[in-house]
Design a protein that fits this description.
Strands 2, 10, 11, 12, 13 and 14 form a six-stranded mixed sheet that branches. The chain has a five-stranded mixed sheet with strand order 6-7-1-8-9. The chain has three domains: about 210 residues, no CATH class; about 100 residues, Dna Ligase, domain 1, CATH 3.30.1490; about 70 residues, no CATH class. It is an alpha+beta fold and about 475 residues long. The chain is built from 14 helices and 23 strands. Helix 12 packs antiparallel against helix 13.
Length: about 475
């Protein structure tokens, strides 16, 4: 058994986009996160806000957003789920469990390399480690001791040299360890277990036993949610689409990693913008085909939000969407019809994003025998409706007259640029008694100009032109 731990070293900072330097996050009048420039000025987590502002007058401060942190950890867990079906959440990271072969990828070093590259693409500050127990992997990650220890390695000896600062000990226990000069895990392991339990509590003994693989580790595994949701708080309210796109691009990078890890695609999503006037602005997107290409998704958002003016400064942006399973198929050898259809659907998605959801229209079939009611205009993408049984779609023209044009009759023969020759028919249409009854006999006719026409004779014997065939 192997465990891979990923600890986010700057989680309170990660949820804020476009952070102005120096920047820090506060909670209960104390700093809980600082960027590199703030640390260079002598600031550190645990420092009071008053002292921090005195040391660095140009410091930008924001209150901690635990809801956004939870959303980020959910996205990180969904990303990890693409590497292991056993994922456990921590307060500022995740654990992944693998078999002795690590994963279908085989080599643990290859697994570590793939996870590391994915986290770098997301732009996170993190520490990562792999070990035979969850406690040791997490302790190594929290102690910034990167590496891989398998069952064949002397991992128990390596665990003895790890610092106690990464263990989840109470403040009282930490103070007692410092007073006794205990600084490494091996210092605690050398103490008698009974005396250690009497002085520090049985929980410390169980923690050490789990760390060394002497006690089974029970984890509450994370279950993937059917939706993706990521909220990013802006360090300063923005009013321009350029600044907003910076935050959206970061969310989409995380979103695409989750989609790839779970072999999913997205068919629709919403972008919600929180504003200073407390009135949210929501933009809904519907795609004609499921997608997970980050460039395509970003292009759609840019088209919709180009020259966007919300009327109030935006303080946060949220993207949410259902995650739909998708089975990959083989790509065609040549760019044939399906590829051209995908290009066309992508064009429609961009037009819809740019012009609005109701601006791109389509014709949908309706279950009605009356030709003028057999289709209706709907928003794109159209609903898939089945035509009524008995419809001969090959005998339907592509252009209907609205309303039908009455024809002259000479010697009982309908006329349109000369006498009409009835090539096929009749087809009786008798329906609509509930909202406008029609009784018609339809014919496919030709005239002297070799035009193919669709005509009908009504119950009163009058003839009408209803459509042209292409």
């Amino acid at each position: 058994m192997l465990w891979l731990a990923v600890a986010l070293t700057a989680l309170p900072l990660e949820v804020f986009a476009a952070r102005p330097a120096p920047f820090a996050v506060t909670e209960d009048t104390v700093l809980v996160g600082c960027d590199a420039q703030a640390r260079a000025a002598g600031l550190a987590p645990g420092l009071s806000v008053a002292r921090a502002c005195a040391l660095c007058p140009s410091l930008s401060l924001r209150a901690r957003d635990r809801i956004a942190e939870g959303d980020l950890l959910e996205g990180l867990a969904a990303f990890a789920y693409g590497f292991s079906p056993h994922v456990a959440l921590r307060a500022d990271g995740v654990l992944m469990r693998f078999t002795d072969r690590a994963s279908p990828m085989g080599d643990p070093h290859l697994v570590l390399a793939h996870v590391t590259q994915g986290l770098k693409d997301l732009g996170y500050a993190f520490e990562i480690a792999m070990a035979p127990t969850a406690a040791m992997a997490w302790l190594c990650a929290c102690s910034a001791v990167r590496g891989i220890w398998t069952q064949q390695d002397p991992w128990r000896r390596a665990a003895r040299s790890l610092p106690l600062t990464g263990l989840p000990l109470t403040g009282e226990v930490r103070a007692a360890c410092r007073s006794l000069g205990l600084s490494q895990v091996g210092d605690l392991l050398d103490l008698p277990r009974a005396g250690l339990a009497r002085r520090f509590g049985q929980g410390v003994v169980w923690l050490l036993e789990g760390l060394m693989g002497e006690r089974p580790e029970i984890e509450d595994y994370w279950a993937p949610a059917p939706r993706f949701r990521r909220r990013l708080v802006l360090a300063h309210p923005v009013t321009t689409d350029e600044a907003l796109m910076f935050a959206v691009a970061r969310i989409i990078r995380e979103w695409v990693m989750v989609l790839r890890a779970r072999a999913s695609r997205v068919a629709g999503f919403t972008v919600e913008m929180a504003c200073e006037d407390r009135v949210p602005r929501i933009e809904a997107f519907t795609l004609t085909r499921p997608e997970r290409d980050g460039q395509v998704l970003m292009r759609l958002v840019r088209e919709r939000l180009r020259d966007f003016r919300p009327g109030s400064a935006i303080t946060a942006v949220t993207i949410s969407s259902p995650l739909e399973a998708h089975t990959e198929t083989s790509l065609p050898l040549w760019r044939d019809g399906p590829w051209r259809e995908q290009d066309f659907r992508g064009l429609l998605d961009r037009l819809q994003a740019r012009l609005g959801h109701e601006s791109v229209r389509a014709l949908s079939l309706c279950p009605d025998h009356r030709p003028e009611r057999a289709s209706r205009e709907t928003a794109w993408p159209p609903r898939r409706l089945q035509p009524p049984s008995g419809h001969a779609l090959v005998d339907r023209p592509v252009w209907l007259m609205d309303p039908p044009e009455r024809l002259n009759v000479a010697c009982g023969v309908p006329m349109f640029h000369g006498p009409l020759h009835l090539a096929r028919g009749p087809e009786r249409v008798e329906t609509g008694w509930w909202d406008g009854s029609v009784v018609r006999d339809y014919f496919v006719a030709t005239n002297a100009r070799h035009e193919s026409l669709w005509v009908f004779r009504c119950a009163r014997g009058e003839w009408f032109l209803h459509g042209y065939f292409s």
